[in-house]
Amino acid sequence: MKDSREIKLPNFLIVGAAKCGTTSLYYYLKEHPEIYMSPVKEPKFITSNFLKFPFAGVGDEEVEKNIVKSFKDYCQLFENVKGEPAIGEASADNLYYYEKSISYIKKYLGSPRIIIILRNPVERAYSAYLHLVRDKRESLSFEEALKMEEMRKKQNWEFIWYYKDVGLYYRQVKAYLDSFQSVRVYLYDDLFKNTLSVIQDICEFLGVDNTFTPDVNEKYNVSLIPRSRWLHKFLTQPNLLKNAVRAFLKPVISDKQLAQLVENTKALNLYKPQMKEETRRYLAKHYQNDILKLQKLIDRDLTHWLS
Questions:
Q1: What is the pLDDT of residue 4?
Q2: Planar angle of CA 188, 189, 194, nearest 5 degrees
Q3: What is the pLDDT of residues 202-248, one digit of tens each?
Q4: What are phi and psi of 164, to 5 degrees?
Q5: Which of 139, 223, 271, 274 could be 127's S-S partner, Cβ–Cβ 3.0 to 4.6 Å?
């Protein structure tokens, strides 16, 4: 490990919210030659200082295996920094656990720049649910899962299961605005409707070349459900049959064309089930007061989230 005087640590953090585009933003920024992003997208080191382990939710043990729990291991994530002026990582649980994470961020990192992305909390909750259905971890209906949320919290399930609670943004965002000097808040809709404009603004915020244009065609970690789980597994995981098909097609199709064919097939196999309208209305009412306070806090019109 490097001499402690040479250790480089993040000077900016994407702190969340979960299922609001943080993964896509991570990969877009990672392309920038003046930005170093942690090779582990979501190390969750900050929250590992106070969360209780083990988690109790379905599949949570796999999540826990990937958490960086020691400061030494966290430092090693950044040992390959080669003079990039902006160094970052993207642990989306830092926003939700603001009451404790802020003090640990200050302890280890001082006062980094903070990036927050927010999404309509109704859509965010449903996206988190579909994320777990996609990964075969959630077996309940969305409505049943909402009723089970408090019990899951008491039993120490990982925060991705807290569909409703994570979307109460006002106190989370206010705490970061009150605690750090340099904070930018973006909306999920902006990120995907005006991607390059948002990336340009973030680069300016980070003090790096804002004329750089990343490849923004791909959207990462999208919460869609496969129509055929066999086909999805075949397309996304290593297997002997896929290797044989690739070898058979190699003489007639380029690697780039084959990769595009795989992506197109994968996309056609995925779909998004619709949320029940009564559930949507229930959640919109649940979030109404929080949204109204939030829009004043960040000076953005969020009334479309209530429609």
A1: 44
A2: 110
A3: 999 999 999 999 988 766 666 566 777 667 667 766 777 767 777 87
A4: -75, -45
A5: 223
Q: Looking at beta carbons, which pairs linking 178-185 to residues 24 or more positions away fall under 8 Å?
A: 179/102, 179/106, 180/102, 180/111, 180/112, 180/113, 180/114, 181/111, 182/111, 182/113, 182/114, 183/113, 183/114, 183/115, 183/116, 184/113, 184/114, 184/115, 184/116, 185/116, 185/117, 185/118, 185/298, 185/300
CB neighbour list of residue 114: distance below 8 Å, 6 or more residues apart: 12, 13, 15, 176, 180, 182, 183, 184
> Which residues lie closer than 8 Å to 10 by C-beta, 6 or more apart?
38, 78, 87, 88, 89, 109, 112
- pTM for the model stands at 0.86
Residue 278 above 60 pLDDT?
yes
Q: Which residues are registered as beta bridge partners of 88?
A: 12, 37
Cβ atoms of 19 and 131 closer than 8 Å = yes
* pLDDT for the residue 251: 83
CA dist list (Å): 49 to 13, 132, 270, 289: 17, 25, 37, 32
Amino acid at 305: W
Tokens of 205: 């915020």
